[in-house]
Amino acid sequence: MTAEQAPDIFELRRRAMVELQLRQRGIHDERVLAAMARVPRHLFVPPDKESLGYEDQPIEIESGQTISQPYIVAAMLQALELRSADRVLEVGTGSGYQTAILAELTAQVFTIERQFLLYQRVQECLPQLGHKNVVFVLGDGSRGLPEHAPYEAMVVSAAAPRVPRVLLDQLADPGRLIIPVGTEESQQLLLVRKLAGAEKVDPLDGCRFVPLIGSEGFPTR
Predict the structure, then answer these.
(1) DSSP assignment, residue 153?
(2) Residue 202 contacts residue 191 (beta carbons within 8 Å)
(3) What is the C-alpha separation between 191 and 172, in angstroms, rounded?
(4) Is the bond into 47 cis (omega within 30 degrees of 0)?
(5) Backbone angles phi, psi at 15, to 5 degrees
(6) In the chain, what are the domain boundaries?
(7) Residue 186 annotated in active site
(8) Which residue is catalytic, options 51, 63, 68, 215?
(9) 3-class DSSP state for residue 141?
């Protein structure tokens, strides 16, 4: 292998992340693992934190937000059982890292972010990586995007006090939604499945996300 063909240090770290942090901890969806092996997480963190890009930890980004630890991203997307033909709603674009993985896994991603700086930045980053199947929206994600509904899958990347009814109403039948629910200090991931007009809720891992702000989330301080 020539020097030009040798993998760079970030690719090596990304491979290690997939094998050690994800596969060995029970992530078995090969499509999710492959997507996370392709998406360069270090490009979605602040430049001074680039060296932490593949550590199994959340990283603070702009506007008081965070990029979730790789395991949590993988666990949420694995639970959704995403298919290549799915249309997905992502509530809380944040850094855009999860958005990029969703774009690798599904047909179309609608992502909504309330922080203008993050909304602006991610629109510059994702197209450079070749992701053209993403629609970016600035607004109150707690109310979803009814104009593009229904969605086969939804992922909410901020903690809510409850599962917003307005989001469930935008979910296709059949469809799946994953969301952290609880207090602002501690939450549990909930997987909601809609099938034949009925909704089934399965509790998953405990977690801690930044609060969902908006009419269906926590009040603005």
Answers:
(1) E
(2) yes
(3) 14
(4) no
(5) -60, -40
(6) 58-207
(7) no
(8) 68
(9) helix
Please give the Cα distance from 73 to 139 (Å, whole number): 23
Distance CA 179, CA 192 (A): 8
Q: Which of 96-100, 126-130, 181-185, 217-221 shows the lowest mean pLDDT across its residues? A: 217-221
CATH number of 58-207: 3.40.50.150
What is the tens place of the pLDDT at every residue in 147-171? 999 999 999 999 999 999 999 999 9
Torsion of CA 115, 120, 123, 128, to 10 degrees: -130
Q: Which long-range contacts (CB under 8 A, 24 or more apart) does 196-202 make?
A: 197/173, 199/168, 201/163
Q: Where are the beta strands (DSSP E) in the chain?
A: 59-60, 66-67, 87-91, 108-113, 134-138, 151-156, 171-182, 187-195, 198-207
* CA-to-CA separations, 9 to 16, 128, 129, 194, in angstroms, rounded: 11, 20, 18, 43
Q: Which residue has the higher pLDDT, 13 or 128?
A: 13
